[in-house]
Here is the input.
Amino acid sequence: MRNGYRWMGSLFVALSLFVALSLFGCQQTTVTKKGATPAIPPQTVAAEKPLPIPVHPWMWMSGARSEKDPRAYGAYGAEGVAAPGNTPPAVSFASAWTGPHGSLWLLGGQGRHLMTRAGLWKYTPATGLWTRVGGIPSPRYGAAVWARDGSVWVFGGGGVSPGGSTPVPPTLDSLWRYTPKSGWVRIGGPYVNAVQDAVLAHSVRGTRGVASPKNWPGSLRQAAAWTGLHGHFWLFGGEGEGNTRNSLWKYTPATHMWTWMGGPSWHWHECCGWSAKPAVYGTRGVPTPENWPGARDSAVAWVGLRGNLWLFGGSNDSVAKSDLWKYTPKTGLWTWMGGSRHSSQPGVRAALGVPAPTNWPRARYDAVGWTGPHGNLWLYGGGHISDTLEAFVDCHSVWKYTVTTGLWTWMGSGHRAGNEKTGFIGPRGVPTDEGPSGAAFSSAWTGLHGHFWVFGGHRNLNDLWRYTP
Here is the structure.
C-alpha cells in the first residue's frame, strides 16, 4: 500500500507540474492579432522597468565660458576658412540643420540687444572647427528650415526694420534655397524689396488640400517645421499677421507649390480682435477629422520613423503649453496623444529613468528635441513664465517619449553647469552630468553616431554642447 500511495503521489505531482507549465506557456504565447486595437490606450500602460540612464552625457565643445567672455561676441576669421579660434557670436532663435557628412549649420539668430544677425556658419564635428560660410539673403531669426539632398530651404522668420532696430521686428514670408555650390536662390514670396525680402505679407490659402501656385503661407516666424519622408515640407502655426496661427501647410519642392492642409477659421474677440479658434482635442489617442491643435509658436517638432509628424508644447502669447499631438500624413488626421488642455501646467515626474503613465513634462516653449535611432522622441530645455516670480524660467531637464508605449521618462537630473550667467566652468571635451546654462531659445542638431548638439540660447552665450543618450 505504501508503494501504491507513493506511485499515486508521484503521478499527482507530475500532473500538477504539467498543468502549471501549460498555463505558463499559454500566458507567454498570447498575441494580439495584426491590426487589432489594443485594449488599453498607450498612455495607461503600466511602467515595466527603468530605462538605462546616460552616464555623463554632456560635453562642452566650444564657446564662451561666461557672458563677459570676449568670445561671446564671436571670432569670425576668414570667410570659408576653418580655424581653431573661430566661433559664432552669442545668438538665440537661430535656425539649424544637419548637412551632408554630419556637418552642423547655423543661420541668423537674434544677438545681444535684440540685434538680428545675418551670418551663416558650419561646424565640422570630425575636426571640432567652425567655419564662417558667409551671409544670408537678409538678417533673420526664428526662420523655418528644411534640409534634403544636400540643400536647405529657408522660409520666413523675424527681420529688421529698413530704418534700424524696432521694438517689434517685421515678419518675413519669402522662401529661399541654399546649396554650398550655388549659394542662395530665391524660390518665391511677394513684396520683395532691397532691404529685406518681405514685410507682413498675407496668406493665400486657396482650397483645402489642393496645391496651387497662388497659395502662400504669409509672414511667419517661429513656426514648427518638419521634413517629411516623401519629399514634402510641412509647416504649422507660428507668429504672423499680428496673431499666433494654427494652419498646417505642405510644400512640394518638385512643383514649387504650397498646399493649405487645414486650420480652423478665425473668430472675433471683443477684447483682442481676430484670433484662431481654440483647439479641438477629442478623445485621447483617437484620430478624427475634427481634431486640431490650438494656435502656437515655438513648439517642438519631431518626425517619427513611420513619417508621422509630432508636436509638443509651444506658446500662445507667451503662455506655455504641454499637449502632445501626432499628425499622420497618410490619413490627414490629427491625434491628441496626451497632455493638458490648459496652459501653464506643472510637470509630473517619477524616479529618474522610470517610465510611468503619470509622467509628463511641464508646459514649455522654445525647447529643442530630436528623434532617436529607435524612433523615440527626446526633449530638452525650453522655458516658461513663472507665476510666482513673474519672470522667464529655464527648464534644464531631458525627457524621453517612447512611441510604442506612450510613456514619458525623465532622463536627466536637470542640473546645469555654473549659473545662468557664467555658463560652463569645467574643462573642454570632458563628459559631465551638467549641461548648458541657457536652455531656452537654443539651436539644435541631430548628428551622426547618436549624438545630439545644442548651441547658444537666451543667456547671451555661444557655447556648443554635445549630448550622448
User: Anything to note?
Assistant: The CA atoms of residues 120 and 134 lie 5 Å apart. The first helix runs from residue 2 to 29. The mean pLDDT is 82.
